[in-house]
Amino acid sequence: MPRVFLSFRKRDSRWMRERVYRALSERLGAEEIFKSSESIPPGADFTEVLVSQAAACKLMCVLIGPEWLDARNEDGVRLLDRDHDWVRLEIATALRAGNRVVPVLLGDATMLPDASELPAAIAELGRLQFLRVPETHLPDGLEQLGEALEALLPDAAADPGPDAAPTPEPGPPVTMTAHVSGGGSAYQAARDQTINLT
After folding, report:
1. The pTM is what?
2. Which CATH superfamily is domain 4-158 in?
3. Do 71 and 11 meet the contact criterion of CB atoms below 8 Å apart?
4. Please, where in the chain does CATH 3.40.50.10140 lie?
5. HEC string of 97-154?
6. Strands of 187-190's sheet, edge to edge?
7. What is the sign, positive or negative, of the torsion defined by CA atoms of 112, 113, 119, 120?
8. Alpha helices of the chain — where are they, by DSSP H?
9. Rounded CA gap, 21 and 19, in Å?
10. pLDDT tens digits for 26-81?
């Protein structure tokens, strides 16, 4: 299952979003990145897939460009203010699940929204430390983003698979007897070893 979930608004910073996706796929492996347009197979229930992936991911990157906060529908209603807005739902799901959520600001001038500008369900996003991918130094920014996210992910090597050998159970305590001329006293040499001086 992908460990990194890319949350984004389709009409916002598309070309930079695609560069981020390609860079992370090359660094971490495409199988580690969930991106709705690439990762949901034809015929799948996209609602179920989006919610389950957002809840299960180890790390969600919220890609925020200049139009992310104030994008509106044809009636002038801000998309984030709709209960069924997918971006809002994805972020709220990941936050409720206790997953790490990282705002990633796309471009040199994009600002992190203040918590007061966000719906209550995702207001926490406005208090989280962000990463930035600057347009003026894009290759370096993508490299730094990859390094930062790689460091935040749990070490796969520390998670043995189902075929890994089990850790052996500790054996019973070992009692050792040492003979010391001139007498002595008993002491604890280690947690599972008692040495009696006689």
Report:
1. 0.77
2. Toll/interleukin-1 receptor homology (TIR) domain (3.40.50.10140)
3. yes
4. 4-158
5. CCCEEEEEEECCCCCCCCHHHCCHHHHHHHHCCCEEECCCCHHHHHHHHHHHHHHHCC
6. 174-178, 193-197, 187-190
7. positive
8. 14-28, 36-39, 46-56, 86-96, 138-152
9. 5
10. 999 999 999 988 888 888 888 899 999 999 999 999 999 999 999 999 999 999 99
